[in-house]
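4.2 Preliminary Data

To establish feasibility before requesting continued support, the project team ran the inverse folding procedure on a target of 179 residues. The structure was first converted into the token representation described in Section 3, and no sequence information of any kind was made available to the design step. The complete token record follows.
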């Protein structure tokens, strides 16, 4: 496990989420991305800032996940969901240079709890899965909506996915409630 503390120069606030990636494409996941005060900031391993980028509506990030959405062999793409209730629930995707790749339209009328990246459709390239209070959406790395799952019997607070039974099917694991 990795533990890091980053003080963003000139910014007061608490980092709500973060992750590591290979933003300089050197083969090592040694760079850090954190979200604070409506922005995301990327840092080299020596904590020198690489770049910063504002989020939609300047909302604080609720979760950040890194992966290889453009299938270039590097974990250099960043999926961010802002923290908002009713106002907006968006998914934003950035490359390792901080440039916006794509933004979703409004997804849900509630906060999106988490975002995960992995291959969920058994097609080359990683995909994105997000969960909101009563819905789960899946997108490919280019932003195409693969599927939506709405109105489960319980609330979804955290999601993990994987081919747990080795049959090519995704299994959802949530906060202990039956979905």
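Position-by-position output of the design step:
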């Amino acid at each position: 496990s990795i533990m890091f503390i980053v003080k963003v120069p000139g910014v007061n606030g608490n980092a709500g989420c973060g992750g590591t990636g290979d933003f300089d494409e050197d083969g090592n996941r040694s760079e850090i991305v954190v979200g604070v005060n409506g922005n995301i900031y990327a840092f080299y391993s020596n904590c020198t800032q690489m770049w910063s980028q504002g989020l939609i509506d300047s909302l604080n990030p609720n979760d950040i996940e890194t992966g290889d959405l453009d299938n270039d062999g590097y974990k250099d793409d960043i999926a961010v969901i802002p923290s908002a209730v009713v106002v907006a629930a968006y998914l934003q995707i950035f490359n390792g240079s901080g440039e916006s790749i794509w933004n979703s339209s409004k997804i849900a009328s509630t906060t999106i709890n988490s975002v995960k990246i992995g291959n969920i459709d058994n097609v080359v390239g990683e995909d994105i899965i997000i969960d909101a209070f009563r819905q789960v959406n899946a997108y490919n790395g280019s932003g195409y909506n693969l599927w939506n799952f709405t109105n489960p019997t319980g609330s979804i607070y955290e999601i993990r996915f994987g081919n747990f039974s080795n049959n090519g099917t995704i299994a959802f694991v949530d906060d202990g409630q039956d979905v």
